[in-house]
């Protein structure tokens, strides 16, 4: 004996019903009894209740709804049954539809709509669908018996009672099935009868419950729930794209998941079957070959203590608190009596150990009724100041991590809340039962999609971790970074289990967003068709997107973009800055950014601010964290100026050498930033600050080598101005050459003071053999006293700078 239930989607039209028919044909060779429970056609129950409501309010549009429903069922007969067999079925359907119309007309005339009448009207949806399907089976030569569920399903039956009570309640049903020579029995779901024998309904999930009651009454081998999904899943697939089917799950786990929003199966479906150990099998009508989910007594262990992530939205949290509660018994009892009186279910309960407050979560739609009831019950305590007036918070959700095998597993709660915390998801309340099967948390509803994905990734996605990147700036370095990300995608997945997904690319003109990830092969064409760039809406889109593991990457040299960092950090979005402006701005702003990153547990990284791809800042941080102390810094920090003075020998104009550096991508967009020494000043300032010193850019002594006339022109006229002052540059070169020295633009820090400027470097100096665009940094510390720690290498160029940003991305990903 098996019971098969098919939902509204499965029977909503002729094509879907053929699919159901094909599934049932698989049972024909088996000489077994099959009970088939059918829901109403999709949407019919709601429309029947809507028609009843309109009739009650004297709105004759109820007739239009009923006419549409009648035509829909008549058309189903015409589409499913051969013409020669249609007549009697059409007559039967029309008769049932006329009965519905007569009942609604009565409601219209007497202006009364009782709960019992609503039940009676809504029961016709299942009666129509099941009786039509019974006739469809007959036309295909499948003998079956249609059974009125109201004659056999008792809504007051309790399967927690002893077996003799069950046997007595369902004696007639067992005799009907066991004594019949039919193999198939067709039941309308959702319908039952009360103690007086009047037709009633089984409420939300009623058809599933009907199947469970029949299965328990007949001691079925299994109850199969056929729906439009392939079983219960590790998370809502509408929220988590990588959600997977759970092959086996225990009754208790299924109850927990279904209670917290997994609508594949309703909690009360499990109750009649759990003590009898009758398995429930959830299958997909439209993909019958899929394995589905088996709900049984003891599910096989799969190595993962967590079985699923579930959530419930539109929750309100009611808080009762006050000093008068401390050490006084009875407050909890009185609170729950207030809720019970209004038939309000407390979904979530937690109480502080100090007994100062109790929090309960209820459905948002009943929160006001709950508040009023609690206020009435505690009128005296509120008026006397023993407790405060009840507070209600809206816009919340409950997220739950569920699994039998979490019991006694150390660190499960820590893992859950660490993952949420890393992504800036604030937990408002926490509850965990003594069974350790469920860890629940109340969070903001706006965070629910991110939270479910974060936890699913934490507990289920061993393949890779997804990092969502927002790239702002598509100049030379930005383009190189995007290309490097494209080329390394497969390597990172395979070797580091990372998926770096670029969800936004923007520049000063356009912005492009895609939650599914941007095609890095064709991003330029897509960006050109993107929206016009506007920083305000750009930030709003990133923040409201609320992506997990989000990283904002500033590849610009724009001061306005550098001002956006706090907005991102305080929303737990990591920031990687190639842009030097933020860290070389006011010291207070620099500290603010550092503090925000620490407070919201995200990364603020800017390795490429100094030395492009060289690990200068990372090395300095390691020295400081290990307890060393920087006593002196000497550095050549401008790859641009090093390139220029390594190539300038007074035979080729200085202006042309600078232009060559610009063409190679070594200079800032405005070369004057390099030539003025401002860029070097910013770099040494950042290093000094990372050493722990409070310094502003104006505290640095900068000796400029550029004629003032060259610095006062526009970037377009810069090269012409330098040609006019070629003799000045020749004199600088000749002075150094005469002494056998080389020219380097050097930054130094000593005794709390920083300086930058040109220096003549003798042959014995570490800087003498510094070629091309290389940078070098010498750290003298309490440990590195006589011989400094030296970091040397290419300090300019789009490729190496992009690789430095890439390295920061990987650091943030960890």
Overview of this structure, please?
This protein folds into four domains: 226 residues, Carbamate kinase, CATH 3.40.1160.10; 136 residues, 2-Layer Sandwich (VC0802-like); 141 residues, Rossmann fold (3-Layer(aba) Sandwich); 181 residues, 2-Layer Sandwich (Dihydrodipicolinate Reductase, domain 2). 41% of the residues lie in helices and 20% in strands. It contains 31 helices and 29 strands. The strands form five sheets. An eight-stranded mixed β-sheet has the order 3-4-2-1-7-9-10-8, with helices on both faces. The longest helix is centred in the N-terminal third of the chain and has 25 residues. It starts with a strand and ends with a helix.
Give the topology:
Blueprint: E1 2-6, H1 14-25, E2 34-38, H2 44-56, H3 62-80, H4 86-110, H5 115-122, H6 124-139, E3 144-146, H7 163-169, H8 171-178, E4 184-188, E5 191-193, E6 199-201, H9 206-217, E7 222-227, E8 248-250, H10 251-259, H11 267-274, E9 280-284, E10 293-296, E11 308-321, H12 331-341, E12 348-351, E13 357-363, H13 367-377, H14 379-383, E14 391-402, H15 412-422, E15 429-432, E16 438-444, H16 448-459, E17 465-472, H17 476-496, E18 498-506, E19 510-513, H18 523-528, E20 531-532, H19 535-545, E21 550-554, H20 559-562, H21 565-569, E22 574-577, H22 587-599, E23 604-605, H23 616-625, E24 630-636, H24 639-647, H25 654-663, H26 672-675, H27 678-690, E25 701-703, H28 708-711, H29 718-724, H30 726-738, E26 742-750, E27 753-761, E28 774-781, E29 789-794, H31 798-813
Parallel strand pairs: 1-2, 1-7, 2-4, 3-4, 7-9, 8-10, 17-18, 17-21, 21-22, 22-23, 25-27
Antiparallel strand pairs: 5-6, 9-10, 11-13, 11-14, 12-13, 14-16, 15-16, 18-19, 19-20, 24-26, 24-28, 26-27, 28-29
Helix pairs in contact: 1-3, 2-3, 2-4, 3-4, 3-6, 4-6, 9-11, 10-11, 12-13, 15-16, 17-31, 24-25, 25-29
């Amino acid at each position: 004996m098996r019971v098969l239930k098919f939902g509204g989607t499965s029977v909503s039209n002729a094509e879907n019903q053929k699919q159901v028919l094909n599934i049932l044909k698989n049972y024909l060779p088996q000489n077994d009894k099959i009970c088939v429970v059918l829901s109403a056609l999709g949407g019919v129950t709601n429309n029947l209740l809507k028609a009843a409501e309109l009739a009650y309010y004297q709105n004759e549009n109820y007739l239009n709804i009923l006419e549409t429903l009648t035509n829909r069922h008549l058309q189903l007969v015409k589409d499913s049954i051969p013409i020669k067999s249609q007549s009697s079925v059409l007559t039967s359907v029309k008769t049932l539809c006329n009965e519905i119309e007569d009942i609604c007309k009565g409601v219209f005339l007497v202006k009364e709509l009782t709960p019992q009448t609503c039940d009676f009207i809504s029961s016709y949806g299942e009666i129509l669908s099941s009786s039509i399907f019974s006739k469809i089976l007959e036309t295909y030569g499948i003998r079956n018996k249609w059974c009125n569920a109201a004659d056999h399903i008792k809504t007051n039956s309790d399967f927690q009672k002893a077996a003799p009570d069950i046997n007595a309640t369902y004696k007639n049903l067992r005799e009907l099935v066991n004594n019949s020579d039919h193999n198939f029995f067709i039941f309308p779901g959702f319908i039952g009868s009360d103690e007086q024998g009047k037709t009633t309904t089984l409420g939300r999930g009623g058809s599933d419950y009907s199947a469970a009651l029949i299965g328990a009454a007949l001691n079925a081998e299994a109850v199969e729930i056929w729906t439009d999904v392939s079983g219960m899943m590790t998370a809502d697939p509408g929220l988590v794209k990588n959600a997977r089917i759970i092959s086996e799950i225990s009754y208790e786990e299924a109850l927990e998941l279904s209670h917290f929003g997994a609508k594949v199966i309703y909690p009360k479906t499990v109750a009649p079957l759990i003590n009898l150990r009758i398995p429930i099998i959830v299958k997909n009508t439209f993909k019958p070959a899929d394995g589905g989910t088996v709900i049984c007594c003891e599910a096989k262990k799969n190595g993962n203590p967590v079985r699923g992530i579930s959530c419930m939205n539109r929750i309100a949290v009611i808080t009762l608190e006050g000093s008068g509660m401390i050490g006084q018994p009875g407050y909890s009892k009185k609170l729950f009596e207030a809720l019970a009186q209004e038939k309000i279910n407390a979904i979530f309960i937690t109480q502080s150990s100090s007994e100062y407050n109790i929090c309960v979560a209820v459905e948002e739609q009943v929160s006001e009724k709950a508040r009023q009831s609690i206020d009435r019950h505690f009128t005296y305590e509120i008026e006397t100041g023993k407790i405060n007036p009840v507070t209600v918070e809206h816009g919340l959700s409950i997220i739950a991590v569920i699994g039998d095998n979490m019991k006694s597993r150390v660190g499960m709660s820590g893992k859950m809340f660490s993952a949420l915390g890393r992504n800036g998801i604030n937990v408002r309340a926490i509850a965990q039962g003594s069974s350790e099967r469920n860890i629940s948390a109340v969070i903001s509803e706006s965070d629910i999609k991110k939270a479910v994905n974060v936890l699913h990734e934490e507990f289920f996605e061993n393949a890779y971790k997804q990092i969502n990147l927002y790239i702002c700036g598509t100049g030379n370095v930005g383009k190189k970074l995007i290309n490097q990300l494209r080329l390394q995608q497969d390597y990172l997945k395979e070797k580091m289990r990372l998926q770096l997904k670029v969800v936004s690319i923007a520049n000063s003109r356009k912005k492009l967003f895609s939650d599914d990830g941007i095609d890095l092969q064709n991003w330029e064409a897509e960006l050109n068709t993107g929206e016009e760039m506007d920083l305000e809406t750009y930030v709003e889109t990133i923040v409201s997107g609320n992506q997990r593991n989000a990283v904002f990457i500033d590849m610009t040299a724009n001061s306005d973009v550098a001002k956006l960092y706090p907005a991102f950090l305080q929303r737990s979005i990591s920031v990687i800055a190639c842009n030097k402006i933020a860290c070389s701005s006011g010291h207070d702003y620099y500290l603010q950014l550092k503090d925000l990153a620490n407070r919201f547990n995200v990364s603020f990284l800017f390795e490429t601010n100094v030395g492009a791809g060289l690990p200068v800042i990372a090395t300095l941080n390691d020295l400081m964290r290990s307890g060393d102390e920087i006593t002196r810094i000497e550095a050549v920090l401008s790859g641009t100026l090093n390139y220029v003075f390594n190539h300038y020998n007074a035979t080729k104009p200085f202006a042309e050498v600078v232009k060559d550096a610009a063409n190679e991508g070594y200079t800032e967009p405005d070369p004057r930033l390099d030539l003025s020494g401002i860029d070097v000043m910013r770099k040494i300032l950042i290093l000094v600050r990372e050493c722990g010193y409070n310094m502003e850019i104006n505290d640095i002594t900068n000796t400029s080598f550029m004629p003032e006339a060259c610095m006062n022109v526009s970037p377009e006229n810069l090269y012409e101005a330098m040609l006019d002052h070629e003799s000045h540059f020749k004199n600088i070169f000749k002075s150094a050459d005469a002494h056998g020295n080389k020219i380097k633009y050097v930054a130094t820090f000593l005794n709390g003071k920083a300086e930058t400027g040109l220096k003549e470097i003798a042959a014995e100096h570490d800087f003498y053999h510094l070629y091309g665009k290389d940078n070098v940094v010498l750290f003298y510390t309490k440990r590195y006293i006589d011989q400094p720690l030296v970091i040397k290498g290419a300090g300019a160029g789009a490729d190496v700078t992009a690789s430095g940003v890439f390295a920061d991305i990987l650091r943030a990903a960890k």
